[in-house]
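Can anyone check this?
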Amino acid sequence: MTPATATLLNTETMPRKAIITKITPSQDLANRRAVASWLYLCCGAVGFMIIIGGITRLTESGLSMIEWRPLVGMVPPLSVGEWERIFGLYRATSEFRLENPYITLNAFKSIFWWEYIHRLWGRIIGVLYAVGFIWLLLRGCINKSLLPHLVNLFILGGAQAVVGWWMVQSGFVDRTDVSQYRLVIHLGIAFLILGYMLWLSLSLIERKKAEQVSANTTRLAFAMLGVVCVTVLSGGLTAGLDAGLIYNTWPLIDGRIVPSGLFAETPIWLNFFENKMTVQFDHRFMAYVTIGIVFTLWWKIHRVPHVTHAIHILLAVVIAQAMLGISTLVLIVPLPLAIAHQMSAIALFLTAVWTTHALR
């Protein structure tokens, strides 16, 4: 028997698991980087989607599309007859009857396009996610431990589409805006998806930490992230009620630091969701709490090497966000400033996730 034949026979009698080629560390790193890059791209797309949604809200365009057609709705109106049909559907809404009874077809088109772009971009995100997922899965880049998380994101994306339509439906009958409750749920799911994606991306490419921090500091970081989330959602509630269009002074609100009338509604809990003064006051208060907890965290960890960049950027962003918020309020919500304020909110949230991940 030749040495080659003996080697072949020995190989054939070995257990199958013993002859499977293991993934080398360099291949594993390349796979993780590929998945992380795809998730970063999806993060950018979701962030842009939130901005488009904010513009749609600020321009009061959200109720211009009456139909929800997930597939054929990708095609915009292409004829005069189709435009007239869609405009006719809009004229049957309470928004048209109570707020825009004199709107022309050309003016209607300007609000229609923002809502159309918003829904189209959602479909583009779905395609981007699905195609990337299938491609990376077929190439063997996705680890089994990561697979459930990616499925969760897919489910959240589908739920977000359904919640978006559920939100829009609330504005078609006896009101001119969507329900602020449904708006906040829609916004919350969007930020959940965004944060989930970023957290997974960072976990895939994380580096070995040069220095550990105390458990109390880690808990403070998670508390900071929670405060940022609540502040963002309170901002959504403020936008949903148009509460930024009143009491346009700072630091006083209605001439006082703590104004009267905060609990004018009954039962008391209703004030936190439907009293415009209370909602705006809550958003201001949460902004102050956010600044305070970010500064405290910065003071504790700004010399920790592996988190220096993240915490410095977080501090800068929270200061910029506060200045934009004050300017937006005092100038009675001009569109460019309001959009910048929403973009800064996204940056604040992402930087808070980044900082918390580094300290976990």
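Reply from J.R.: I decoded it. The two ends are 60 Å apart (CA to CA).
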